[in-house]
Amino acid sequence: MYQIALCDDEVAELNRVENMFEDYCKKNTKPGFVVRRFADADELLRVTQEKEYMPDILFMDIYMPGRFGIDVARELRKMGNRCHIIFITASTEYALDAFRVNADQYLVKPVLEEELFQVLDNILDYMDREHKKYLPLRIDNSIHRIALHEIIFCEAQKKYQCIYLEDGTKHLLRMTMAKIYDMLSVYPEFAKAGISYIVNLEHVDSINTHELLLDNGEKIYLPRGSYQPLREKYFRYYCEEE
Fold it and tell me: What is the pLDDT of residue 219?
């Protein structure tokens, strides 16, 4: 299910667009939507930050009372929110600014059903390919989507777990290693290396009975009994990939 946020101070417009979503769901076999309506941009920002709400797609009027839609989008981006943004407005005056905050589309009112459906088709096709390649994590009181290919390994550090990324960034997480592995184990490139490490096989340069070498130069020493299952998963992953 995709999380859809609608933000518009005009109730009639909210009703109209929501009805289009319902029609779209009836005509398509793609996953459904959970639609949440916001008549106030400040409310959208508040629940996004305080309640950890993370919409996949945001449809927003660019002219909101007390808030300019472009500024709202900038604040969402600063929070780490990378949702798809579609501005809906009566004017094309700010179209260029919309794309500067990585908006996907800029639709002029009244939005036609076929226009909205085409935008949804394009975004959902993209998300079908990319959505599963990100891991949503709470970092520094915000929800961030971390690209899986950027994760090199995860290390248990007492009450925290540390995720190491390919750009050298490290993130401390208040999660158990078991919880992180539950999230990553559905992807074949991630494997356990003993009880203290989860490694991304894409970043493994070499492996032997005592250690594995990662492409960032880090070495992970393997505890007794962990080499054989890790070796089998490593070769199975690359053989199946081929």
Answer: 93
